[in-house]
Write a structure and sequence with these properties.
- The chain has six helices and twelve strands.
- With 246 residues, the protein is of the alpha+beta class.
- The N and C termini lie far apart (39 Å).
């Protein structure tokens, strides 16, 4: 089974190699992601996030899912000393950096519950997979047609934060200015909830984010600094040389 839909502002592709998995499993996955977009988008005025941001909702009576997402945001805000923050001063509440990995991971769990054993779910370049081996390419931060690493993945997730797709869009919450110490940072972790949030939080920290992320249990990383040095943890599961040419 193969299926691609555009949800939450990026393409989401699904490949399932279990021949007996009903199409309803994929329907349920994409219905969930559309529900997430409607509830959490900071760009839809009727979303729960926007209504909370405008003060129209009692913070003590939020949906369990929004409470969970805001809890994750607070966890990483505290862990990074404020570099990662879903509530940047002067800006709308924007939990997207947490919502993406969290929601896609929950989608993967829906697939498992429906009986999927071997699948790969790719959400805008961030991947959660099961029943590998799979091979996930890490895009070169300066050359769109090249890879700087290939990650073998069996059961787990890989996420990348970088400047190449949306420019300097990741801000350091401590200063309100773009974080420019890294060109890209890729994290592998047991879940995409963690891989995606850690990649963004570490990127917000700049060069300090590399040792911070490397110290987290279960996380391995591959980073390219602004001066084009490659930094990687010993356990990062990559094939190839990992060399990045200027």
């Amino acid at each position: 089974m193969r299926r691609v839909e555009h949800v939450m502002g990026f393409p989401v592709s699904l490949r399932v190699d279990d021949e007996d998995l009903p199409a309803a499993a994929a329907d349920g996955l994409f219905a969930w992601l559309r529900e997430v977009d409607a509830r959490f988008s900071p760009f839809r005025e009727d979303s729960e996030v926007c209504r909370l941001d405008r003060g129209e909702l009692d913070p003590d009576r939020l949906s369990p899912h929004l409470t969970e997402v805001l809890g994750l945001g607070e966890r990483y805000r505290t862990a990074t000393g404020g570099a990662f923050d879903v509530r940047l001063p002067g800006r709308r509440l924007d939990p997207c950096a947490v919502v993406k990995g969290w929601s896609v991971q929950k989608g993967a769990e829906l697939l498992r519950a429906a009986g999927a054993r071997r699948f790969c779910l790719n959400a805008g370049g961030d991947v959660v997979a099961a029943g590998g081996p799979w091979r996930v390419g890490v895009r070169h931060p300066e050359h769109a047609g090249r890879l700087c690493a290939v990650v073998p993945l069996t059961d787990g997730a890989v996420a990348t934060s970088a400047r190449y797709a949306r420019g300097d869009h990741i801000l350091d919450g401590r200063t309100g200015r773009p974080s420019t110490g890294l060109l890209s940072l890729t994290v592998t972790a047991p879940t995409l909830t963690e891989a995606d949030a850690v990649a963004t939080a570490a990127f917000a920290l700049g060069a300090d984010g590399v040792p911070w992320a490397a110290a987290l249990p279960g996380c391995e990383l591959f980073a390219v600094t602004a001066d084009r040095r490659v930094l990687r943890t010993p356990g990062f599961p990559a094939d190839g040389s990992g060399q990045v040419a200027a």
